[in-house]
From TrEMBL:
Alphabetical list of InterPro entries matching this protein: Cyt_P450, Cyt_P450_CS, Cyt_P450_E_grp-IV, Cyt_P450_sf
Biological process, per Gene Ontology: lipid metabolic process
Taxonomic lineage: Eukaryota, Sar, Stramenopiles, Oomycota, Peronosporomycetes
SUPFAM superfamilies: Cytochrome P450
Species the sequence originates in: Peronospora effusa
Gene3D superfamilies linked to this entry: Cytochrome P450
Protein name: Cytochrome P450
């Protein structure tokens, strides 16, 4: 532990490379943000509306609601830079790994769940399955409740990061009586939390999207971020939480409305984790992609009935009777 701290202090080895690259990234991002903020501040000073809806615009509009002073200070640029860095570095692998577990592994493990997703799309967004709608909008995708429940259940069982690390800011005592001292590092395991029977009942290991929905209303349940902890909580909650959820839902609805995605590996239960800072699927994910057929929308019972009717030998039946 102390070795990398020493290298960082002496500015040598990989620590020097990391710091040099970080400075380069900060300089580039600061320049882009500063130029953008200056242009938007000039528009705001003239009373013109900010048309472009990007991260800088949202930040500037929020500040305009809080104060009429649009003078740019260093703290504004630092806040914006940190948000951009979070989106760039934390918003790619984590989302990709979640979709890897979802698209390729779980939808091959649970074909009935996939049929329910398509059934909901057929009922609420038929144009997507028929091809009239190429890509759904944010408003259209919002009504797919079961789809979002499946996404959340996937994230619960397969969090993009296996643990969350926090530094204790002051001496405190945890609810179980454990004393932790200021400066100590605590680690919360998202993977273990998702498998806690006291939180998620006895069937915690089962892939069950219905647990994310209210049994009476059919709406999505709202969980405390300390229970559904995959996006963090408090002031350090993931800034891209809603963006990531919408990105996964849009990608899933678009692909599953047009294609069947099957693993080349015959047994999807053989896939396991590759432990790292994130926890993706281990090994290559080879798949076979085919255009969606009508049979893909049918349940196992419906398909079995169709097969029976297709293979039934009517002439033999008539001769026997």
């Amino acid at each position: 532990m102390w070795l990398w701290e020493l290298k960082k202090f002496l500015n040598i080895g990989w620590e020097k490379i990391v710091m040099d690259n970080t400075r380069t990234m900060h300089t580039f991002i600061n320049k882009v943000i500063l130029e953008s903020m200056k242009k938007k501040a000039e528009h705001a000073a003239r009373g013109e509306k900010m048309v472009t809806c990007d991260l800088v615009t949202l930040f500037m509009e929020k500040r305009l609601m809080q104060t009429e002073d649009m003078q740019i200070v260093n703290s504004d640029i630092t806040i914006m830079r940190d948000m951009v860095m979070t989106f760039v570095f934390a918003g790619k692998d984590s989302t990709a790994h979640s979709m890897g577990w979802f698209f390729i592994v779980n939808m091959n493990r649970y074909p009935e769940v996939l049929r329910k997703i398509r059934k909901e799309m057929n009922e609420k967004l038929p144009g997507l399955l028929s091809g009239k709608i190429k890509v759904s909008t944010q408003e259209q995708i919002h009504g797919l409740v079961y789809l979002e429940a499946v996404v959340k259940e996937n994230i619960r069982l397969h969090p993009s990061t296996g643990f969350i690390v926090r530094e204790v800011m002051q001496n405190t005592t945890l609810v179980d009586g454990t004393f932790v001292e200021k400066g100590q590092t605590l680690m919360v395991s998202s993977y273990c939390n998702a498998r806690n029977k006291q939180t998620w009942d006895e069937d915690t290991l089962d892939f069950k999207p219905e647990r994310m929905m209210d049994e009476i209303t059919g709406n999505l349940r709202v969980f405390s971020p300390y229970i559904f902890s995959d996006f963090g909580s408090g002031q350090h909650v993931c800034i891209g939480q809603k963006f990531a959820m919408m990105q996964i839902k849009l990608a899933m609805a678009t692909l599953f409305s047009k294609f069947d995605i099957k693993t080349v590996e015959e047994d999807p239960w053989k896939f396991t984790y590759e432990f790292s800072l994130t926890i993706p699927v281990k090994g290559p994910l080879n798949v076979k992609v085919t255009p969606l057929t009508i049979s893909s929308l049918k349940s196992q019972e419906e398909q079995a009935l169709d097969d029976y009717c297709t293979n039934f030998r009517w002439f033999d039946y008539l001769e026997e009777t």
